[in-house]
């Protein structure tokens, strides 16, 4: 049947996801007073961006939302090693604080590219946030600034994350073998 799922282990339930996003918003909100832009890294970060924006709005924080469409995995489960800009941001970030939002922090290439891309456009300050961080992701200077969830070292799907374009709509984070 076309609706059949492969074996997907739930690694973070919808309820636990929402609790982690709320806790993240508590930490982020005090840092985001003033002129901030929030940049949704398309495509995968869209559900996370939506829920994080709502959690920030409930705390009185309303960054200007924009999007940057980056691609490096295409339909593979390993990074191509190159980050491609498929569509750029629309609003200027010159002189503004920028919160870059991504779903998963893995090799770190995507967020490193996004950070430098937005600094080059004149951002005053860049903060990165990812929902999930892989165990082998870069530490130290190349690390993501904030993350909500320490993910297992497996290929994740759901809540924006895909396997060749599928499963982005699952309301939980799952892992495939
Ligand atoms: O830390 P990295 O190794 O760079 O991996 C993280 C990136 O990989 C995925 O993007 P992908 O290129 O698959 O595009 P997508 O968002 O459209 O799924 C994901 O959405 C992150 O942006
Ligand atoms: N869907 C998906 N995309 C990724 N990009 C980098 N790591 C992952 C992952 O675990 N799952």
UniProtKB/TrEMBL annotation:
<keyword id="KW-0808">Transferase</keyword>
<dbReference type="Pfam" id="PF00156">
    <property type="entry name" value="Pribosyltran"/>
</dbReference>
<dbReference type="InterPro" id="IPR000836">
    <property type="entry name" value="PRTase_dom"/>
</dbReference>
<protein>
    <submittedName>
        <fullName>Hypoxanthine phosphoribosyltransferase</fullName>
    </submittedName>
</protein>
<dbReference type="InterPro" id="IPR050408">
    <property type="entry name" value="HGPRT"/>
</dbReference>
<dbReference type="GO" id="GO:0016757">
    <property type="term" value="F:glycosyltransferase activity"/>
</dbReference>
<feature type="domain" description="Phosphoribosyltransferase">
    <location>
        <begin position="41"/>
        <end position="160"/>
    </location>
</feature>
<keyword id="KW-0328">Glycosyltransferase</keyword>
<dbReference type="InterPro" id="IPR029057">
    <property type="entry name" value="PRTase-like"/>
</dbReference>
